[in-house]
Amino acid sequence: GTDLTKPGAVKIDESFKAILMLGSAAIYSAVMLGPWGELKSAAFSIGSGAWWIFAGSFLVINFMLLPALFYLAVKITQAWSPLGRSVKYAFKALSASLIPLGLGAWAAFSLSFIFTNGSYLWGVLSDPLGVGWNLLGTAGATWTPYLSGVTPTLEMAALVLGLIGAGQTAMRISNQGQKLAQPWPILLFCFGVTVGLLWLLVG
């Protein structure tokens, strides 16, 4: 984690990778867990007109909209307290704060599938080749979702931990001699994304 706060640690392509990780977690959460049947249908109808619209929207959100919003947050940060660094430098440096948030988002997204589908693992372990074995006596185990009552709490915890990590990373970057202003707009950006993910994942 400390590598993220070193001067020049993040290059521009890595900045976009961090944004892509965060944006794709939000989009896949909307597709897989959201209430929009048309969106899910478009995402799975590969090659159809609806799929091309979905794919185009995916690219626009991840490579235009989110970077533009993050750039705006960086621009506001620098405008409040310009300390000799260019906006491009600040964009690259502060984008490292999105990595913990993206990891938290993917952890929260994955938890629902792990606990919901975890019971399928017992049948696979008993009959890994699908030839009728029952090595562990669990080949006939029925599907039972695990920890369904606490999964939303665990998802919330993963997102909050990601937000805390993002905030700590942004503050360290600003305070370690990189001549950057205090990144309150960046923290607000991360908070807004977290609230959106909480709405998608937890409701």
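the 2nd protein, sequnce then structure:
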Amino acid sequence: MESDFVNITADGGVQKRILKEGQGDYPQTNSTCKIYYLGTLEDQKPFDSNMGQSKPHKHILKRGDRCKGFEIALQSMKPGEKSQFKITPEYGYGPDGNIFKDVPKNANLRYEIELLRFKLEKKKRWLMNPEEKYEEALKLRTKGTKYFKNQQYQEAKEKYKDALTYCVLNTKEGKEIKASLQLNLSICCFLREEFKESIDYCKAALDTNSNDQQNLKAYYRRAIALQQIGEQEKALQDLKSAYKLDPQNTAVIEELQKVKEHLKQAYSKEKQSWSKLFVDKDESQQNINEEESQQQQESEQNELSKNIENIDKDNQVSKDIIKHEIPQINQNETLQQLNESRSIQE
């Protein structure tokens, strides 16, 4: 029905009716769109079409090979969408018409367009001026944030890194978007447990030094990441710096108290460990001394036992010598020998 058409320009010069919904982003300037289309006059006479062809038509937006209304129509579509459009002469071929397409002067046009897909042909970075690079950085940051909200942190990280390559403006706005991207990257890395990389991006944001609010975020986020790698004292210093920038910040105050308490407990445990170490050392030395004393006593006892044993052996040897070398004297034989001796002497 004609009443289904809605204006997509303020003056109603281009109207649209959706036949099939699409999904995704809208094509932009320099996008290469793959489409099927049919253009007719008000009497439904075709003047331009690729319907029935095996391959879709490639149309690059803003190249001027179609009327202005056609460009506006395409930019209102999403991939997969099929829609009908009504275009007035002001947005069509105007008072001159188009003799090559057999479009008369001041003709109202009808189009049915199906957008299959499109690819954005970006202008090369080195060909952009600083303002264009700034705009591109904003677009990429927006895409990165969409990924971030969907918890697609790796994809968000890639978009933010890409956006950083376009940050060349040394103005207040240029520094702010650069620091913003660096801070966003620090969050992505933190959530991916890439803590050291998160710390590096916070440092980069502080080096950019765009404003106090972003510096506050950088100090706070770096402190959180530092705690994850056990750098509590460095985290404390960053939180103190953040506190100086905003003494009323509740998150900073709570984290500052938490780190102080953690360090207090750590120092207490360390002190106890050192105390125990000295006590253990004294006890160990005492045990060593006692053990050495016991060993000395055992050694002396063993030496004494050996001496006694040697004495016993010597005594036994002496007895054996006496027994074998000095035979026992028979009393009768001795008396007889004495008498004989006397007899001889006499």
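Residues 317-346 have pLDDT under 50 and may be disordered. The chain is about 55% helix and 15% strand.
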